[in-house]
Design brief:
The structure holds two protein chains of two kinds. By secondary structure, chain A is an all-alpha fold. Chain A has one helix at 37-74. Chain A has a domain at 38-76. Chain A contains one helix and no strands. Chain B has one domain (2-148). Chain B has three helices and no strands. In chain B, helix 1 runs antiparallel to helix 2. The longest helix of chain B is centred in the middle third of the chain and has 82 residues, at 40-121. The two termini of chain B are 58 Å apart. The chains are: A mainly alpha, B mainly alpha.
Chain lengths: 76, 152
């Protein structure tokens, strides 16, 4: 009758990334000129914490991409 | 032929088989009709109708198999896509759980370090005040601020 009469092709939606990964990394905190030593230590700690949080998200994005690619390639 | 996709496989199969079988039956009837003298003139017409139905039926049978095999492939693909979407969602949950756990750990560690700073480092605050024994140079603060500045 016809080679393929399917009017709606089978399409897969682009996978939805988790909202937790869709947040931008925050800007790093800065110091004022008359900052105390303890404030410097706290600011550096806060910046390191921000970096670690951001690196967790980046690692998660890499993992997410790898998994989604694997899933996509398995649908053939 | 797009309308074929709207017809159920059972109805389509029944219709095609009916055309094919009726083609054979009418052809046979036509063959015998032409042997009966009283209705012999109709035999030729019946044979033509039967042959045409048989040929259409044969063509449709081939098309039906093709259509059904495509539908089976589409169904299989739809199932695979649905399974992949489900798996994708499950993996997202696992990734989010991992991110939340690790982030909590990092924040707790940061808070512990801040507590340590409050307990141990604040002792030296007066020593490092501007004009104090070991004043923190402004260049040091500038270097730290420049490093924290995002590249534009």
């Amino acid at each position: 009758m016809c080679n393929c009469c399917t009017t709606v092709p089978v399409t897969s939606k682009f996978p939805q990334a988790p909202n937790e990964l869709m947040q931008k990394c925050p800007s790093l905190a800065k110091l004022s000129d008359d900052t105390k030593l303890s404030e410097i230590a706290k600011t550096v700690t806060s910046n390191y914490t921000s970096y670690h949080e951001c690196s967790i998200k980046l690692d998660a994005w890499i993992e997410w991409y790898g998994i989604q690619k694997q899933i996509y390639e398995s649908v053939k | 032929m797009w309308f074929l996709s709207a017809i159920s496989p059972t109805a389509l199969t029944l219709f095609v088989h009916a055309v094919f079988v009726s083609g054979i039956v009418i052809s046979v009837i036509g063959f015998f009709t032409s042997k009966i003298p009283t209705i012999a003139p109709y035999g030729f017409l019946i044979k033509i109708v039967g042959t045409m139905l048989f040929l259409f039926g044969l063509y449709f049978e081939g098309g039906l198999q093709n259509e059904l095999s495509w539908r089976a492939k589409v169904t299989e693909m739809e199932q695979k896509v649905a399974a992949a979407e489900q798996k994708s969602k499950e993996e997202n949950v696992k990734i989010v759980t991992k991110v939340v756990t690790k982030t909590e750990l990092v924040r707790e560690r940061g808070q512990d370090i801040v507590k340590y700073v409050d307990r141990e480092v604040t002792k030296y605050d007066t020593k490092f005040l501007p004009g104090g024994q070991c004043e923190i140079p402004k260049e040091f603060i500038k270097a730290l601020n420049d490093a924290a500045e995002q590249a534009k």
